[in-house]
């Protein structure tokens, strides 16, 4: 078994603000659409009484803006072997994941009858449990409630059950790195032969206000309601909904099966920053340096081959600065002076879907390398002065541009979770 073999992305499914398919997400990004909404769907919560534009007010939210999915989407529980009783308390996050998994399997040309009983792995990232928080005190706590709402392990378990998949099955929580960590673990499982196909992704829905209140009190949320990554006036992130699932195979298997290959995962890495930051939740340049270097080594490429990085980019000014410095030190410094590493973030379009944020960036990067186009990143007109862009040999993307250079298109995808976990994934264009 070739433990360095590229992994082929053969199917994709997603739900993000303004986009219910990867194609729609690409159109939204290329159309430079800002998909933020002024309020959450009325079926969820009404946060108007909590609104206070003054920053860092305990018990208040500085902005009502967010990126939200449509709550009216139909879900047929029987199609996923969910009973009607289970469906009454089923976490909406698991409904969205099941739907995206079905889309990814269909995109990969894998009908249910062809995969039942096979060693197909399922790796999903989920970090929040706001649905369970809302249910407590309003429903009987029994095994139905535990299995449908309390247990995050069911994010992956329900997918394996729905399609009778017999490979590894796990749900991971690394905060905002959850989805990309799930993809990394899926790639490792494929390369060791533990499974022959894998579904990997992540989900996050904003279903309550407790987390929002906490982030607002810490000064982490944007008072202006926009994720302005690497902008001079970046002021924090905006919480949003999202889910994305990828169908993955070893490249040799995908080619033997005649699959359409969207892009290749050339290498990936995960690492903790340890105590290299002043606080446990804070990122560090060392953490980014470590995973970018490891991912490049795993992929067998030199950093100068990376033309674009889809950044974690959640618009926290200090965090953006650390990430950009790391990208410059590991990639920009090795590229030609007339071809800096381009840097952007899908969060400028759709907000920050937390556990699914890295998967959104990965889908964007997969489409970008395939089309050899780097789409514009919103709010790139006034880059932060806290970074020496020219000295680091990196550049923002204020408008869509052809892929830099004539070599193979390779993009990096970064994510960071407040638990201290960094993940970096290198994505390459598919073979001819």
From TrEMBL:
* Highest taxon in the source lineage: Bacteria
State if Transcription regulation is listed as a keyword.
Answer: no
Q: Which Gene3D superfamilies match?
A: 3.40.47.10
Q: Which InterPro entries match?
A: Ketoacyl_synth_AS, Ketoacyl_synth_C, Ketoacyl_synth_N, PKS_Beta-ketoAc_synthase_dom, PKS_NRPS_Biosynth_Enz, Thiolase-like
**Keyword annotations:** Phosphopantetheine, Phosphoprotein, Transferase
Could you give a single Gene Ontology term from the biological process aspect?
A: fatty acid biosynthetic process
Q: Which GO terms describe its cellular component?
A: cytoplasm; plasma membrane
Fetch the Pfam families from UniProt. ketoacyl-synt, Ketoacyl-synt_C
Q: State the protein's name.
A: Beta-ketoacyl synthase, C-terminal domain
GO MF entries: 3-oxoacyl-[acyl-carrier-protein] synthase activity; fatty acid synthase activity
Phylogenetic classification of the source organism: Bacteria, Bacillati, Actinomycetota, Actinomycetes, Pseudonocardiales
Family, as annotated: Belongs to the thiolase-like superfamily. Beta-ketoacyl-ACP synthases family.
Q: Where is the Ketosynthase family 3 (KS3) domain?
A: 4-429
